[in-house]
Structure to design on (127 residues):
């Protein structure tokens, strides 16, 4: 298991930007595909995007394509989510997750069964 801690959430106006970070406890972070998910009040958790172990493959939900970018720094054991052009509908708790079941996965998709999860960070977008 790898411990994950998200940070960078907060309150931002519509049209603004935020960058979320997800710090991992283990150097094995570099072996795993990583994902971002979000859960809004009263809604199910939904896939935001994912990145494979070396950053060469990414996948995004249609709702965030062109606005959000996932990247990682394996030396720093950190995953990032750059969020631009934020909308009130982006308001949610954002979670990062590690694909600990399948190291060195070549490509990513929304159907990955992520084995480790962080506690989440709140993002609120005001209109």
């Amino acid at each position: 298991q790898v411990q994950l801690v998200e940070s960078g959430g907060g309150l931002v106006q519509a049209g603004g930007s935020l960058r979320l970070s997800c710090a991992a406890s283990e150097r094995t972070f570099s072996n795993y595909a990583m994902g971002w998910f979000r859960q809004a009040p009263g809604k199910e958790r939904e896939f935001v995007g994912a990145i494979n172990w070396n950053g060469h493959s990414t996948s995004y939900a249609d709702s965030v394509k062109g606005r959000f970018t996932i990247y990682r720094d394996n030396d720093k054991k950190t995953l990032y989510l750059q969020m631009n052009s934020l909308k009130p509908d982006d308001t949610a708790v954002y979670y990062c997750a590690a694909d600990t079941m399948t190291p060195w996965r070549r490509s990513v998709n929304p159907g990955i069964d992520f084995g480790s999860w962080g506690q989440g960070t709140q993002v609120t977008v005001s209109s």
Summary: The chain has a mean pLDDT of 96. The longest strand covers residues 18-24. The chain has no helices and eleven strands.
